[in-house]
Specification:
By secondary structure, the chain is of the alpha/beta class. It has six helices and seven strands; from the N terminus they run βαβαβαβαβαββα. Strand 4, helix 4 and strand 5 form a beta-alpha-beta unit. The structure holds 5-O-phosphono-beta-D-ribofuranosylamine.
Length: 215
């Protein structure tokens, strides 16, 4: 049960690629700065994702769910959800996860699915705004600053409530590649910061005495 003194918020990490945000979160936990959380499982839709291979090497529980084996997104997310429940996940962390999350998962984890996006949302978010597309669009628009955003995930892409942002300034000679590097450094700081706050809020709610109603 989630009310023990030593309860930690259990993270389910979903990733599809290199997993640098996962590594940053893990390093922060290992450094003792994120003592409220533990990693319950790391899941990928791509068997070759570097982040997943790293999680395996580190001895974490991992799972691969191949999209082609499911008839539709909802069936996929139901299997994902079963796995998350089996591992008692409290908070779902999208860390470079390439799939759109359906209501199957969102209803089971209301307010408890987080994502990181490489722009200052609401700017440069939404359909098609992925990876280098974001940084290319920012540079093409001659923006003076960009950054990253952690937000709660809702059914509207990149439009859930914003939980934290970090900014970077854009130099005149900036390229999408150099901007991506700068933003990523900030992502690795921002995600653990936000997770710490959200996990603490969740633990505080669990620690509140339950109201007893008498008839
Ligand atoms: C990051 O830029 C993140 O903002 C976006 O996907 C990228 C994932 O990078 N959602 P990594 O796999 O964590 O290195």
């Amino acid at each position: 049960m989630a009310t023990k003194e030593n309860k930690k918020i259990r993270l389910g990490i979903l990733l599809s690629g290199r997993g640098s945000n996962f590594k940053a979160i893990l390093q922060t936990i290992q450094s003792g700065q994120l003592a409220q959380v533990e990693i319950a499982t790391v899941i990928s839709n791509r068997p070759s994702s570097q982040g997943l291979l790293y999680a395996e090497e580190q001895g974490f529980n991992t799972a691969i769910f191949l999209p082609k084996l499911f008839p539709h997104r909802e069936a996929y997310d139901q299997t994902l959800l079963d796995h998350l429940k089996q591992h008692h996940v409290d908070l779902v962390i999208l860390a470079g996860y390439s799939r759109i999350i359906t209501s199957v998962l969102l209803k089971a984890f209301p307010q408890s699915v987080l994502n990181i996006h490489p722009s200052l949302l609401p700017a440069y978010g939404g359909k098609g705004m992925l990876g280098m597309n974001v940084h290319e669009a920012v540079i093409a628009a001659h923006e003076k600053e960009s950054g990253c955003t952690v937000h709660r995930v809702t059914e509207a892409i990149d439009a859930g409530p914003i939980l934290g942002q970090r900014k970077v300034s854009i130099a005149p000679e900036e390229t999408p590649e150099t901007l991506a590097e700068k933003v990523l450094i900030q992502e690795h700081l921002l995600y653990p910061e936000v997770i710490e706050k959200i996990a603490q809020d969740m633990l505080d709610i669990l620690a509140q005495p339950k109201e007893v109603t008498t008839l």
